[in-house]
Amino acid sequence: MIKLQDITEEELLYGSLACAGCGGIIALRMALKVLGKNTVLVLPAGCLMATCGFFPQMAVNVPLVSTAFPSTPSTVSGLVAGLKVKGKEDITVLGVAGDGGTADIGLQALSGSVERGENFVYICYDNEAYMNTGGQRSSETPYGAWTTTTPVGRNKMWEDKPKKDLLRILAAHNIPYAARTSISHPREYMDSVRKAKETKGPAVIHVLAPCPSGWGTDTSKTVELARLAVETGIWEMAEYENGKYKVTKIIKNRKPVKEYIKAQGRYRHLPDEEIEKMQKQVDEYWKAMS
Ligand SMILES: Cc1ncc(C[n+]2csc(CCOP(=O)(O)OP(=O)(O)O)c2C)c(N)n1
Ligand code: SF4
Ligand SMILES: [Mg+2]
User: Fold this and answer.
1) Looking at the DSSP assignment, which residues form a beta bridge with residue 76?
2) For 186-198, what is each residue's pLDDT tens digit?
3) What is the Cα–Cα distance from 98 to 49, expressed in whole angstroms?
4) Is the pLDDT of residue 4 over 90?
5) How far is the CA of 126 from the centre of ligand 3 (A)?
6) Ligand 1 centroid to 69 CA: how many Å?
7) pLDDT tens-digit profile of 248-258?
8) β-strand pairing of 39-43 with 92-98
9) Contact 60, 13 (CB under 8 A)
């Protein structure tokens, strides 16, 4: 587990333009605390680019390459190759993209750079929608959620598909290291970042990062909500390492799914029988995993 002395006191992210309570900012700030200054960051279009990446108001204190929406892993690959030629292989190349930029439009490029075995760290901060463009659904939007493209009015067209399982997709690549984690568990999350940095080859972290604006939640509840996702069993903390999938946090007495759902405006429309259905799915999943 990561030790406090492994974490820099220096703030490498401050003064962003993000909404109060942004989970993505917390994820990036903690990651930079572990990776330190010897890092080159790649950000595509998305909330973190829009709130941290514009000169002269840059909120990150490491070199930043802004890239196109589908291209984070390709840009990362180019930087890794360039730094190798220059003999600067001690620099961490860090790609950070949202759920849309990773699980949808960036998935092909991510698959390619993982398959090529390049040495990089990649973090997908998952706010479960395309937030920078106003909250459209992504393939990581969970079942039942309202988004601007899964609207709920006279017709109830809430999201009707489950989340894409990024960790198992990466496991199918036999990636050296991948983790599914949450900003609510800083030590576990930062330890994943440490492991990712130490991995020789590609390492990808999928981190739950609630978004008060899109989820219809109070800005003070971001961390609490992320923790509830873990404690209800909705968000499984897990790792894929040395060819093995491992659940990293077993919750003995899971809280009811209803607690998590009822805390968020994006699920306000959901009838009780839908929530019961979700509860059943979560229970069945954990039964199969035990
Ligand atoms: C090729 C392309 N398509 C669409 C866009 C518009 N666009 C910019 S950011 C964004 C949403 C990003 O969503 P996500 O990756 O989940 O990051 P978030 O904004 O949620 O942080 C979209 C659709 C774009 N910049 N480029
Ligand atoms: S919309 Fe959501 S993800 Fe984007 S800056 Fe605001 S809180 Fe963060
Ligand atoms: Mg998103």
Assistant:
1) none
2) 999 999 999 999 9
3) 10
4) no
5) 6
6) 6
7) 999 999 999 99
8) parallel
9) yes
Query: How many Cβ atoms are within 10 Å of 143's Cβ, its own excluded?
Result: 16
Give the closest residue (by CA) to ligand 1 atom 5. Answer: 69
Distances (CA, A) of 269 to 147, 160, 258: 12, 13, 13
Mean pLDDT of 223-230: 98
Going 50 to 137 to 110 to 203, the CA torsion angle's sign is positive
> Domains (ranges, CATH) in the chain?
4-289 (3.40.50.970)
The pLDDT value given to residue 155: 87
Residue 173 DSSP SS3 = coil
Q: How far apart are CA 239 and CA 245, in angstroms?
A: 6
| H or E element at residue 202 | strand 202-208
pTM for the structure as a whole: 0.98
Q: Would you give the distance in Å from CA 206 to the centre of its chain?
A: 4
Average pLDDT, the chain: 97
Distance CA 4, CA 30 (A): 12
